[in-house]
Amino acid sequence: MIQFQQVSKSYPGGFDAIKNLSFEIPTGELVFLAGHSGAGKSTLLKLIAGIEKPSSGAVLLNGQNLARMSRGSLPFVRRHLGLIFQDHKILYDRSVFDNVRLPLDIIGFDYQEGRRRVLAALDKVGLAGKEKLNPVSLSGGEQQRLCIARAVVHRPSILLADEPTANLDRDYAHDILELFKSFHQVGVTLVISAHDESLMADYGRRILRLKHGQFTA
Amino acid sequence: MKAWFRSHTLAFTRSVGGLFRQPIGSLLNLLVIGITAAFPLALWLLVSSLAGISKNISVEPQLSVFMVPSADQAQVAALQQKLENDNRLKVVQFIAKDEALKKLQSSFGSADLLAGISENPLPDAFVLQAKDPNPQLLATLKQELATQAGVEEIQLDSEWAHRLARISELGQNLFEVVLVMLGAALVLITGNAIRMQILTRKDEIEVAKLIGATDAFIRRPFIHSAIVQGITGGLFAVGMVWGAIAHTNPAIEALAKSYGQQFALQTPDALTILIVCATIATLCLVGALIAVSRHLRQYR
Ligand SMILES: Nc1ncnc2c1ncn2[C@@H]1O[C@H](COP(=O)(O)OP(=O)(O)OP(=O)(O)O)[C@@H](O)[C@H]1O
Ligand SMILES: [Mg+2]
């Protein structure tokens, strides 16, 4: 369960990216986040993950206020999240396998069990057999799939995807959204942002529409 | 336990792998650590070698008590009795005037030297060594003895001891100053080296923090790297000092021999090597911890 209680976020310099938002996303729901460039989509997702702190109001994750959480316990909350970043944050100094492995290393997973999980995640996103490659040699769509594999390898209960279909053609984008649907079917809560609302329409899900940091109807 | 072990082996391969990935930079860094650490180590070995000499040539301060030439047997015997019962003294040696004359004659190799003198000019004497060579005690003893009947003069020959003690104290102080200064330098050097390593792995640290890494997870490989660098740098330092000692010892031994002494600089023993490596590793660790915490402060 994700709850926003009158949340505002101004960045240093006084720009209000999010203005007094209140909403709830129940556990297990799939929600789309739409809006123009600069509407505040990324900011909203960062607030859910505790990467940014609200300037006022409270963000609750399963009833816990992230802003009140100690530096020591925040990492353990993050481990229940799967994050797909708009700028990917792929590490190009290591193989596809080692990129996907990172969340498991952080958790301290057993080596053999971790290896099985990584290969299973790569298989799930359609990158089976590419684990030894360097991510540079992947296509744009494949890099996006790599990000998804890294976000789900530790089986998070909430998946936050920031524009996972950006720069992909329509069919490819649909493949990716089908992939997310399959995570939704096993009970994962998903928030997926995108520019292109027409893609979302096909899925008949709740859409949060942002405009200059506020919801529109 | 298994997970703990795994997280450490993982961090270790990550960090040591990193050192080998930039061999030239790592080697230069180890040399800097080694040279920085070599100075205090060399100074320490010099000071402790000097302390070794002062033991060898036994410069324990002595009190020489000379009796008046007219002192009679009874006075001498009384004083001897008193000195031997004094438990502040370690050695009480009586040198009768005849004996002193004989010694003098034999050291000049002929009896002729004193042939013209009819009477033995030398007094009876005592040579004393205190149990505790502290100058205050010696001064007190000197004062007390001066009031004894039949005593003419007392010589306190502790100058040598004083001088040597002052030299080794100076060496000790110098060592402490150098240790503190170069210790601080080592912290800064490794702090900076680790900061560079952090910068080359900035992206990895950022992603790891974002997806739930604890500060300890981020810190771990840098801690390993600092300890490995500290120990290796320490061994470099020991190697350099060892080489320097091997190079200069023949000349030092020859010089000492010309003074009729046996002296050489000590090479570091196993305990010293252990202490050197542990100290440097600790200093490098401090530098690394400072660098990593400074970097981590920007993340939440
Ligand atoms: N770190 C930051 N510092 C200052 N301003 C920021 C920062 N991050 C975002 N902003 C501003 O906040 C506003 C919302 O940004 P945000 O990234 O949330 O938009 P977005 O909806 O994700 O846009 P896009 O579709 O282009 O990714 C923008 O005007 C942006 O300039
Ligand atoms: Mg964005």
Compact description:
By secondary structure, chain A is α/β, with parallel strands linked by helices. Helix content of chain A is 34%, strand content 27%. In chain A, strand 7, helix 6 (170-185) and strand 8 form a beta-alpha-beta unit.
Could you describe the 3D structure shown?
The complex is a heterodimer of chains A (217) and B (300). Chain A is of the alpha/beta class. Chain A has one domain: 3-Layer(aba) Sandwich (Rossmann fold). Chain A has 7 helices and 10 strands. Chain A has helices at residues 41-49, 74-78, 96-107, 111-124, 140-152, 170-185, 197-201, and strands at residues 2-11, 15-25, 30-35, 56-61, 64-65, 81-84, 158-162, 189-194, 206-211, 214-216. Chain A has a 6-stranded mixed β-sheet, sandwiched between helices. A 4-stranded antiparallel β-sheet of chain A has the order 2-1-4-5, covered by helices on one side. In chain A, strand 7, helix 6 and strand 8 (189-194) form a beta-alpha-beta unit. The longest helix of chain A has 16 residues, at 170-185. Chain B is α+β, with helices and mostly antiparallel strands and 300 residues long. Chain B folds into 2 domains: 2-57 and 162-296, no CATH class; 62-156, Alpha-Beta Plaits (2-Layer Sandwich), CATH 3.30.70. In chain B, strands 2-3-1-4 form a 4-stranded antiparallel β-sheet. Chain B starts with a helix and ends with a helix. The model of chain B has no long low-confidence stretch (mean pLDDT 84). Classes of the chains: A alpha/beta (217), B alpha+beta (300). The interface between A and B is medium-sized, with 27 and 19 residues. Adenosine-5'-triphosphate binds at residues 11, 15, 17, 35, 37-43, 86, 195 of chain A.
